[in-house]
Write a structure and sequence with these properties.
Elements lengths: L5 E8 L26 E2 L2 E2 L8 E3 L9 E7 L8 E2 L2 H36 L6 E6 L13 H6 L3 E5 L6 H13 L4 E7 L2 H8 L5 E7 L10 H5 L11 E3 L4 E4 L1 H8 L5 H10 L3 E2 L17 E6 L7 H10 L3 E5 L5 H4 L1 H14 L2
Parallel strand pairs: 1-6, 7-8, 7-9, 9-10, 10-14, 14-15
Antiparallel strand pairs: 1-5, 2-3, 4-5, 11-12, 12-13
Helix pairs in contact: 3-4
């Protein structure tokens, strides 16, 4: 049978005590915590082998005596004692500073939340996001990202790149940038990572965002970046026309380019793909804009067109802030919110 706890006396405390354990009236020995032998408890010594617990009267008033019962296994009684003024003051000071610290932590948390809210509600109406599409696509590839950006107050323009050469695509992008009245966040998907690296050398461009894209260094082309890598399986599904422009087969769209889209979406991508001039593979960037402004990189972790490991290496090389999306090469279509969030972050930090 379990032993019952019995009172050995009372203490008068000026505030809450930190004794060994708390229990309800009639608690058993197994419910409490064993203390060291002969532990002094503010004037009451608990003999070796005994356990103790406390019960503080409810509605204790700081600075006023509070009755505390000290319990042991034996019925042996000790004389009540009273705390000294010094001990009472120490307990009150401890309680005061504990409350003060808690208040400061609450104030700090509220301030942090307020700052975070302010960050998320910045006026972005003076910022334009210029979206540039990659190979085998057109400006409509951004159709699911655009509404999310506009809902945040951003002005958005999607460039229609001719995909005929690096110079032609850079010129088309620069024309759009030139028309914007304020700061610009320049975004490039796939091949357009090369385009924004060249076209981004403009004082209006405050940030670059690479989405499943190539990010070359100076005097570097896509052919240079991929020279030591095995040929990707989708390369066997390329068709080159008489003018040297490349398109992907419907099979490649389904299997490699947009495998995470529903069949209807895959058919739209196949029907709207923009033929890409094969010579673009060898065209080099002169001075990459990412060297002079902050960069962001959306890595598509299921990309079968540009290997995710290669995306990670390029993002690290340019010092980009990285967002990882569990999507295919067209994560801008399959995961528009995640891609848009990375662009919004770039726009907010560019303020």
């Amino acid at each position: 049978m379990k032993s019952k706890w019995r009172s050995i006396g009372t203490l008068l405390a000026g505030g809450t005590l930190g004794l060994a354990a708390l229990a309800s009236d009639g608690a058993t020995a197994d419910d409490a915590q064993t203390t060291a032998a002969a532990s002094p408890i503010y004037g009451v010594t608990i003999p070796k082998g005994y356990r103790e617990w406390q019960m503080i009267a409810p509605a204790a008033v700081p600075g006023q005596p509070t009755t505390v019962q000290v319990m042991v296994k034996d019925a042996k009684r000790y004389a009540p004692t009273r705390f000294s003024n010094q001990k009472r003051e120490m307990k009150m000071m401890s309680k005061f500073f504990g409350g003060f610290l808690k208040s400061m932590l609450i104030v700090g948390a509220v301030a942090t939340g307020t700052m975070a809210h302010a960050e998320g509600t910045k006026d972005l109406s003076n910022t334009t996001v210029v979206l540039t599409h990659g190979a085998f696509a057109d400006g409509s590839s951004w159709s699911r990202v655009i509404p999310v950006l506009e809902a945040k107050g951003l002005h958005v323009v999607a460039v229609q790149n001719p995909l005929s050469s690096l110079n032609d695509d850079v010129a088309a992008t620069k024309r759009v940038v030139d028309e914007q009245p304020g700061r610009v966040v320049l975004v490039g998907h796939s091949w357009a990572g090369v385009v924004i690296s060249e076209a981004g050398n403009d004082d209006k461009v405050k940030a670059l965002v690479y989405v499943s894209a190539f990010a070359p260094d100076a005097n570097q082309s896509i052919a240079d970046i991929t020279r030591d890598l095995p040929a990707p399986p989708w390369s066997k599904e390329l068709h080159k026309d008489s003018a040297g422009y490349l398109t992907l087969s419907d099979k490649a769209i389904r299997q490699f380019f947009a495998p995470d889209l529903p069949p209807a979406g895959q058919r739209v991508v196949a029907a709207t793909q923009g033929p890409w001039y094969a010579g673009c593979l060898d065209e080099k960037v002169t001075h990459p804009a990412w060297r002079d402004r902050p960069s962001y990189f959306v890595v598509s972790t299921e990309d079968q067109m540009i290997a995710p490991a290669l995306q990670e290496r390029m993002a690290k090389a340019i010092g980009a802030t990285v967002t990882r999306v569990h999507g295919s090469h067209v994560s801008l279509v399959s995961h528009p919110q995640a891609v848009a969030n990375a662009i919004i972050e770039a726009a907010q930090r560019a303020q």
